[in-house]
Amino acid sequence: MMQFALKMGLLVCFSIMVLTLYHEAFIYNGGITSSSFVIKQSKPIDMPLSSDVFSHPPGYNAPQQVHITQGDHVGRAVIVSWVTQDEPGSSSVVYWTDTNPQKHKATGKLTTYKYYNYTSGFIHHCIIKNLKFNTKYHYEVGIEMGHTTRRFWFMTPPAVGPDVPYTFGIMGDLGQTYDSNVTLTRYEMNPVKGQAVLFVGDLSYADHYTFHDNSRWDSWGRFVERCTAYQPWIWTAGNHELDYKPSIGETKPFKPFIHRYQVPFWASGSTEPLWYSIKRASAYVIVLSSWLISSYIHSMYTPQYQWLHEEFPKVNRGETPWLIVLMHSPWYSSNHDHFMEGESMRVIFEPWFVKYKVDLVFAGHVHAYERSERISNVAHNIVNGECSPVSDQFAPVYITIGDGGNIEGLANKMREPQPKYSAYREASFGHATLEIKNRTHAYYSWHRNADGYAARADSVMFFNRYWYPKDDSTTKSKRRW
User: Fold this and answer.
1) Which residue numbers delimit the Purple acid phosphatase C-terminal domain (predicted)?
2) 262 in any annotated domain
3) Catalytic-residue membership of 125
4) The one catalytic residue among 328, 338, 367, 431
5) Three-state secondary structure along the chain?
6) Host domain of residue 322
7) What CATH number did the domain enclosing 278 receive?
8) How many domains does the chain divide into?
9) pLDDT tens per residue across span 222-238
């Protein structure tokens, strides 16, 4: 009997050890998830600076790093930005429609900045105003005599309206690795053609390099130009845009980002370029900052708080039914990386998201993909300890899409057990598309890099919270908790 007990004790100990090791391995690989796909783990590698994706355009003082974004609140203006290296040159843009060769000219402004031992090129920003909706425009930059001129084009959005279809691409945490290049290529080749990109922060990762090597801002701008010069990217600032480094004398947060990437914050009454809003087709897009210029702690009565307090009541769901919010740090994530870093912001702002029936919230920061069910957590009960999210059909779906391919790699350590609010999660690189069909339906899909161009790894038809607030849960039991 003693020997039997000893053998059974050793067997139990061995079983516990095996289960523990299995559990730890299971957590590392993502745990119980809606995805059965397991990516081969390898650390992303930066593309060499000699790669063709970083090449300088030929010609003297050739404009480079060309990018556009919306330049007003409704989509009738475009901000065109570019850099010249040899000399300032002209800050003007010549433009014309696809059907009328008569040329128009707009003149912008020039800026430069210094960061530690780096001096920027000459950064140009020019706003083209009073454009026609749903029209193809050609434009030229570098138009001064004797210098190199480059030509691009873009499409303006349709006029704002409740049933106007429109397709957004969504990306975040891109960087400039081989995986970053695959992400951008997959987006460009996707049969679902995005018309504008919602970018949820962390662009170049220049701060990853010694002394926040700002030449990496230049290489990144050349890398993404093949897309950013032809369709607007709606910019959100992430933590890698902070570039706050007192040890080398750099104490002004967001300096490179703000000099390089202008946004129309003034058009929505914002006082800072880190939070603003735009209308585009049938969508109202609100961009928020997870990190503030004057304070990294979210609290009531900050400038962003005051602005958002006044902004939500302005949204006319009869005009723009789809209410979308962009930020960098996710509020709901079951990943170990950056767990609950967005909590102070969530506590302050989440009641408004539910009150005003926000449809979708996109965030990055965590280098993985995750989609929640519609949940809220606005009624903490400290007495009985019930402070878990609950199913709430008036609340947004929260999507983390910080999986662009950056140098830091994938966040593949998931928390176990998988929370009930988590509908789908996976540690893979990729991008997403959102096809707004009308005021009631929008088709969303996430595309992992490892698949073909047309494959949809995760997809769902979202129902509008204002016009068609039906249950669009996607878990098998459409569970309630």
Assistant:
1) 395-452
2) no
3) no
4) 338
5) CHHHHHHHHHHHHHHHHHHHHHHHHHHHCCCCCCCCCCCCCCCCCECCCCCHHHCCCCCCCCCEEEEEEECCCCCCCEEEEEEECCCCCCCEEEEEECCCCCCEEEECEEECCEECCEECCEEEEEEECCCCCCCEEEEEECCCCCCCCEEEEEECCCCCCCCCCEEEEEECCCCCEHHHHHHHHHHHHCCCCCCEEEECCCCCCHHHCHHHCCHHHHHHHHHHHHHHCCCCEEECCCHHHCCCEHHHCECCCCHHHHHHCCCCHHHHCCCCCCCEEEEECCEEEEECCCCCCCCCCCCCCCHHHHHHHHHHHHCCCCCCCEEEEECCCCCCCCECCCCCCCHHHHHHHHHHHHHCCCCEEEECCCCCEEEEEEEECCCCECCCCECCCEECCCCCEEEEECCCCCCCCCCCCECCCCCCCEEEEECCCEEEEEEECCCCEEEEEEEECCCCCCCCCEEEEEECCCCCCCCCCCCCCCCCC
6) 162-201+274-480
7) 3.60.21.10
8) 1
9) 999 999 999 999 999 99
